[in-house]
Design goal:
313 residues, alpha/beta, eight-stranded mixed beta sheet, 13 helices, 8 strands, elongated
Length: 313
Amino acid sequence: MVFNIFRKKEQPAGAGVAESLEKTRGGLFGAVRNMFQARRELDAAFWDELEERLIQADLGAHTTADLVDTLRETHDKRRFDSPEQAEAALRQEMMRLLGGGTVGLNLPLPLAVILVVGVNGVGKTTSIAKLAKFLAQSGRKPLLVAGDTFRAAAIDQLKVWGERVAVPVVAQGPGSDPSAVVFDGIKAARARGADVLIVDTAGRLHTKINLMEELKKVQRIVQRQIPDAPHETLLVLDAVTGQNALVQAKSFTQAVGVTGLVLAKLDSSSKGGVVFSIAQELSLPIKFVGTGERVDDFAPFDAGEFAGALFAE
């Protein structure tokens, strides 16, 4: 059962999606929008330039080709009266790619487990803290687990963030077995009455152990304690990295069965189009976006709002 916590309580006002997309809207995607406002003829040169600009905005060659081909076919069948009509059709196709609306989290009681995965440097720890605060303000009782024991800094960072958002953290020393820390986290959650366990995981290992195999081991330990867990495996991606994020997403999805994405640093990206290629090629829902540096700059992803913000003036 999916628990849609997104509408339980009004969340504090952080940076919104439209505000966070300012760089994307004013940058490469702005060039796409300007094409439709120029009132030029929708000829072969127009479609070729549109394809080029969408690729530059980081939608990826495959996704771009599908979008432009769909628009061309629609235009051939019923002719757009103006570039504005073509722009509206493009927006609708983009919303279709993203699935529309928001996608809730699967957080069953009495204890839900969320594994958070992603490579180092993508904003994983910050996203965990933002998610924990969001859940707490939605009426849940989260507990954090410092499962990235291969980096002492990762443990310390999670502790600091836990203090900032007033969410307890279960941790051991650097070099501890991550699975053992997760096992302790489950015991602690049950003892303290927590109902959501959010587990930080390694993004890179400094040992001979394969990262994906280590993540699978953590999954197995969780499942021994809670057979239907983890209930969510969220992959954090850095919006700034563009198509590299898609490569990362494919690797993690194949190894650990990702259930949803968190797109971090959306406010820092001048592209943002990678959202569409990820949605098309992986069929994974984007569940949250990081919209700024503050802990409240975190929002459930809404496809309509995102597509609309890209085309806003």
